[in-house]
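I am writing to request your help with a piece of structural work I have in hand. A protein sequence and the structure tokens that stand for its backbone fold form the material at issue. Please examine both parts with care and let me know of anything in them that strikes you as inconsistent. The record follows directly beneath this note.
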Amino acid sequence: MRILKLIGAAAALMVLASAAAQAAPGFSTANVNLRTGPDIDFPAIDVIPEGDDVEIMGCLDDESWCEVLWDGDRGWVFSEYLAFDGPGGYVSLLDVGPAAYHVPFVTFAARSYWDRYYVGRPWYSERARWYAHHVRPRRDWHRPPSGRRNAGWWRKNYRAPSGLRPPPHHGWKRPSREIRQEARRHRRNARQEYRQDRRDDRRDRRDNRRDDRRDDRRDHRHDRH
């Protein structure tokens, strides 16, 4: 039995190592939502700031969405807002295709994905709804051409998702490291304040319940006399 457990653990480590080896370093080209699934209906985890580093874990086979790892969170973003560092500037993921940077094609199953990455998160309590959710293809999305592709092929008749500006063109400059670090500090402080507010709120509710129970006991004793 112990040998079987060791074999299972080794296999799990091999899977994790393989997934890590396939991840490609990239970055966002705009402030874009990180979602819990490849559909705009799925809850947003956070907003990835423009220019922030991500690990691109994989993309759907139509390249409409890609899975990324960002700031410890794993989720899905619109593929056209992802890019790689390249000679003379940035390289849009869609211009060259995921395979050019060894990014694999992946699939999505809400149940296994949420159970693996989101247990204990605020939205996990609504998991039954999302397990049953039918993931819709992106509206007005065109599959990439087969074979060699021309840079910017996807911009023809392209319509940016609601609430987002179109991805930048080639002249765009990635925000400096200092600006990205400052944004990261601001985000970290905001998260800490949010967590502290939640702790304070839970403490206040607990104190209120305790006071209510004490008042109920006092009223009960008063009624008996």
